[in-house]
Amino acid sequence: MIEDLTGAIEITQRIEAPPEIVFAYLTDSRRFVKWMGVGAELDARPGGRYRIDVDGEHIARGEYQEVDPPHRLVMSWGWEGHPTVPPGSTTVEITLTPERGATVLRLRHLRLPDEGERRQHIEGWKLLTSQLAAVVAP
Amino acid sequence: MEAIASRRRRKILRLVWDAERSAGDIAAAFDISWPAVSQNLRVLKDTGLIQERRAGTHRYYRADQRALGPLEAVLRQMWTRDLGRLRDLAEQEARPRRPRHD
After folding, report:
1. Which of A59, B13, B63, B73 has a beta carbon 3.0–4.6 Å from A80's, enabling a disulfide?
2. CB-based contacts of A34: which residues, under 8 Å, 6+ apart?
3. Is B9–A137 a contact, with Cβ atoms under 8 angstroms apart?
4. pLDDT per position as a tens digit, B6-17
């Protein structure tokens, strides 16, 4: 299959747990905040919205487009106030495939802005520095 | 301790993000000793995230936005780190009494 993955990233993660449990961590607010952000309000149904307080400073939000437990989740994604990745501008697609009692999670973050667009709005990077600082922390 | 240091580095990074600032300006934004600020500046400098310019006895700092890499790299880092946490939690819940084997 030939697919254009320009402006996209793909991450695959094998998890030794059934898809039902993994799906609950993706859609249940209480479980969700244990792995991402410091606060989350999730209304995981088609057309429902979510709001994630990433670090007490930056808010990610979007809308669920597909919710098919425990197989697939598609939602729009963006940061409030971000010039190049505002809410609604990108798409996160997660699929869970069962594999002998485990789950293969594939996440694709699609429709990312191209390099030229980003250069015009370099300021937008500022919003991602908290992520970055977590990276540089030894 | 490390979390505090990390928070301080975040603050420094924001201060020097789009404007060059002197060592004195940066120190003034903190209520901690200069050696503590200086140590965090050195860590950021070593990782290439900020650049230092010397003029006489003064030192100036500015973020090197190129060192952040493309958006893809930042997002990849974020998702990889967070999904790693999700994996650990889901595996714990699936097998509460058995340790994880990599």
Report:
1. A59
2. A25, B85, B89
3. yes
4. 678 878 887 887
